Amino acid sequence: MLHRLVGDLMTTAVVSVRRDLGFKDIVQNLTEHDITAVPVVDDQGRPIGVVSEADLLRRQESQADPGGHLSATHLLPAESAKAHALTAGELMTSPAVTARPEWSVVEAARAMARHHVKRLPVVDDLGLLVGIVSRDDLLHVFLRRDIAIQEEITTDV
């Protein structure tokens, strides 16, 4: 199980956005595709960052409370820039922490833990986006049927 590769587990039909896409369009993409984050790519298709629901909510939480019930949130300088962001390039967390298709589940899990991220855009040798792998994808390794695990072990031994 531990030698399963990211390339076997990643989603290859990746929804990505360009840096100039606006806030509402990003939210629309997340909702339409039932995802919680989206890689931001440059003109060549290389990941440069990721916009997550947390990034989007950070912008919203800094807005004035229409009901006047909550006091303004005090933000650090870096968070303040995101609080006024309008585009993916301004909202994204960057640089993008990426994985490679040939990485093991263990390598991907360690990268996620080390960088405190929930997903990794997967890139090829040229740095182009070829997939995305999430914590959920990595955990699915443990949900395989016993017969599938047995067959894998038998084949490998």
Strand and helix layout:
Elements: H1 6-9, E1 17-18, H2 23-33, E2 37-41, E3 47-52, H3 53-61, H4 77-83, H5 88-91, H6 105-115, E4 119-123, E5 129-134, H7 135-139, H8 146-156
Parallel strand pairs: 1-2
Antiparallel strand pairs: 2-3, 4-5
Features:
157 residues; two-stranded antiparallel sheet; 5 strands
Distinct helical segment count: 8
According to CATH, what is the topology? CBS-domain
Order of helices and strands: HEHEEHHHHEEHH
Count of discrete structural domains: 1
For the termini, the CA-CA separation is: 13 Å
The low-pLDDT segments are none
Identify the overall geometry: globular
Structural class: alpha+beta
Main beta-sheet strand count, sense and barrel state? 3 strands, mixed
| Number of strand segments | 5
Q: Going by CATH, what is the homologous superfamily?
A: CBS-domain
Mean pLDDT: 84
Helix fraction, binned, reads: 25-40%
Strand order of the largest sheet: 1-2-3
The top level CATH class name: Alpha Beta
CATH architecture: Roll
